[in-house]
Design goal:
five-stranded antiparallel β-sheet; about 15% strand; single chain; 5 strands; 3 domains; alpha+beta; 10 helices; about 220 residues; OB fold (Dihydrolipoamide Acetyltransferase, E2P); DNA polymerase, domain 1
């Protein structure tokens, strides 16, 4: 199974892209953004194997890949419908729609009607927290449209910056907060929106800080 591809963009039209890897193999990948041809790109890949053919779907983050793969487990939702849904809504919007059973929001995607939206909520309401726990810190935006020779310089700058700044994972902080609040008897559907809201409004680097502020909002 192919899980990640890195190489030179040979073709891109906002629907598909062809990536030439160092091994000399060019992979045709579904990707919803136009990429600069001749530049380097790195994508997470969901490799869908069918009886008649195989398809590769590209994503900027691991969280997007995991969410796509979870959506394809829903009865009646195929890879194309799942990819269309992710093109219409952000991962957070999809997760929130499932968590709060907002079926109407899910129908924003082409080909996803009320029945399919209801099935997504039904099948994934108890599983979506697994996707929310996946880090989306690694993204490929910073190397899209960058020449190959620039990549090493970008990585060096990022490494130097990270050495001088505190390291924390926003998703881990939120998940630790959810677990702590649940142990205190609060329901997950109440905790999640408050945690995201408080996280967005404050400079938080530890779960203890977020727990304290969330409890104040209860």
């Amino acid at each position: 199974m192919i899980g990640h591809i890195q190489g030179e963009v040979l073709f891109s039209d906002g629907g598909e892209t062809i990536i030439l890897t160092n091994s000399g193999v060019g992979y045709q990948v579904y990707f919803s953004k136009v990429l600069a041809e001749g530049h380097h790109i790195s994508l997470y890949i969901s490799h869908v194997i069918k009886e008649a053919n195989q398809e590769l779907f590209g994503f900027k983050t691991l969280r997007e890949k995991k969410l796509f793969e979870l959506l394809t487990t829903v009865k009646g939702i195929g890879p194309k419908s799942a990819y269309a849904l992710m093109g219409a809504l952000s991962p957070k919007e999809i997760c929130d729609a499932i968590t709060f059973e907002n079926k109407k929001a899910l129908t924003a995607a082409p080909g996803v009607g009320p029945k399919a939206a209801a099935q997504v909520v039904l099948d994934l309401s108890g599983k979506i927290h697994k996707v929310m726990m996946v880090s989306d810190n690694y993204k490929v935006d910073r190397i899209i449209s960058m020449p190959k020779e620039s990549i090493s310089l970008i990585d060096m700058d990022s490494a130097e910056a990270s050495a001088d700044s505190p390291q924390y994972n926003e998703n881990e902080i939120i998940q630790d907060t959810i677990m702590a609040c649940k142990e205190l008897g609060f329901k997950e559907e109440v905790i999640i929106p408050l945690a995201h809201k408080v996280m967005g409004l404050n400079d938080i680097t530890k779960a203890e800080q977020l727990v304290h502020l969330v409890l104040k909002e209860m």
